Amino acid sequence: MQLKEIGGVQAYDLGNNVYGVEDTNNGLSIRLIFIPSSIVVAAEKVHREDPAGMPDVNKFLTAYA
Fold first, then answer.
1. Nearest in space to 17 (alpha carbons), one of 34, 40, 3
2. What residue spans define the domains of the chain?
3. CA 41 – CA 64 distance, rounded (Å)
4. At 1, is the pLDDT very low, low, confident or very high (cuts 50, 70, 90)?
5. Phi first, then psi: what are they for 44, rounded to 5°?
6. Which value, in Å, is the radius of gyration of the alpha carbons in the chain?
7. How crowded is residue 28: how many other Cβ atoms within 10 Å of its Cβ?
8. What's the burial of 35, exposed, middle or buried (CB within 10 Å: 0-12/13-18/19+)?
9. 9-65: per-residue pLDDT in tens?
10. In the chain, count of helices (H) and strands (E)?
11. pTM of the entire structure?
12. What's residue 30's pLDDT?
């Protein structure tokens, strides 16, 4: 994974405009994945068109991340 600076923050470029950051706070390891709104909108559209095919958008986005 390549690092890219975004707004002064070093982020891992995970591809398809998805980025991850890693940090620690009070001894806890924190990892965040940023997914572009276009992917979220597309997932919600698929869910509306076929709820049985994608019953849970949040689970899909978590798996995608």
1. 34
2. 1-34, 37-65
3. 14
4. confident
5. -65, -35
6. 15
7. 7
8. middle
9. 999 999 989 999 999 999 999 999 999 999 999 999 999 999 999 999 999 999 988
10. 2, 4
11. 0.75
12. 94
